[in-house]
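Researcher: Going back to the complex we discussed earlier. I've cleaned up the inputs and rechecked each line, so this should be the final set. Can you rerun the prediction on the complete assembly and write out the structure?
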Amino acid sequence: MIKKIVLAFFMVAFTLSLASAQQKKLGNETEAQKKQRMKWWTDARFGMFIHWGLYSQAARHEWVKHNEHLTNEQYQKYFDQFNPDHFDPKKWAREAKAAGMKYAVLTTKHHEGFTLFDSKYTDYKATNTHAKRDLVKEYVEAFRAQGLKVGFYYSLLDWHHPDYTMDSAHPLVQEDTSKANYDRLNKGRDMAKYRQYMRNQITELLTNYGKIDVLWLDWSWNKGDKHGKWGDDWGAVELLKLVRKLQPGIIVNNRLGLYDYSDGGDFETPEQVSSKELEKYKGKTWETCQTFSGSWGYYRDENSWKTHRQLLDLLITSVSNGGNLILNVGPTARGEFDYRATNALDSLSYWMHANDKAIYNCTYAPAEFKTPENTKLTYNPQTKRLYIHIYNYPIGGKLILPAYNGKVKYAQFLNDYSELKYNLAANGSDLELILPQNKPHYDISVVELTLQ
Ligand code: GLC
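Model: Rerun complete. Updated structure for the full complex:
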């Protein structure tokens, strides 16, 4: 009995301390202010991730340095060789825009430590390769010129920096995870210096390129993970304060490992999850990041490319659960999108041209609208239009809208604004939407309902 009471006491104390821990805040922005700051982003719904770096030459995963335990010396050939002669970010920006993407996030530095920008704090940068110029600057200008919002990815991990200490992801840590081996490898390394290096580089990124809309910092281990890093390892509190000071309007992802803070990041980042799993995020602020084929960097021999339908499903499912999709392209070492990426983007642009009203400014449908069979719903709260994404076009041409009677004013296909008629079903509550025999020329066709 006493044991139970003591246990209950500790449970309550623990829960309270957890609650107060969760309530810690870095800033004093209200929920409404945050919503306003993030409005363009939640309205946009669809962005382009770009993973590009020296690893595109290995063409076998952006983690190749880790996967193959390569030393700086062994990896040096990719720096010496780097010569992206087809790099044309205007073309990237045009493709992103055509596909309906409203923002982009480029890896200014990935885990390999190489910077695509001209940093004062390292020689390991694009300016010192055959490229001989600041590639980030050209990216920023090109995307901005297309009216797209501009984001920077910056890796917290750094597999090149001499002061970055060992952790379970570092390429130099092999099978031997003993303390003795860690101590040996960490000799002479000073994480405090690396923290300063990051601060310096992030300051450069956020002062030298005008207004930056998104900062995507990657990544932290779970709190308590053996040989991991999070929060304090990055000096995250100070870093985030600095970021907000330099760019007050910026939107920052949640991977700094500030687990005790309610405002330690603006949005959640479910990575490569299935569309089924996305349902769990309804009601939160989030962006799912997804690849075309599995890896983020260019991977020549990967054969797991997602189909057009899978990509569409990710986009629709994201919006129908109130989130964003950022879809990744890994340009080749010559600096261009591979034909498979271009084909995928083209097919999205075809669909988006006709159906983007069911994506932008949309979210999940109000609870009173049941999802008709084999469809997904998105909803624009401003225009009060409901969008039915038809996954399996019904043979026989009838789609049952369960208990929609009295709620609909007008129905049409979104792709050509052609009217669709509907009848009241025998049960007096469902509507029967009459669809033509010929399915519109889209993998997933969309019906737009103007609501009462
Ligand atoms: C992961 C990987 C990385 C990729 C990122 C994108 O954390 O480390 O290679 O950049 O996810 O979300």
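Model: Worth noting: The pocket of alpha-D-glucopyranose is lined by residues 51, 62-63, 218-219, 271, 289, 296 (CB under 6 Å).
Researcher: Good, that matches what I expected from the previous run.
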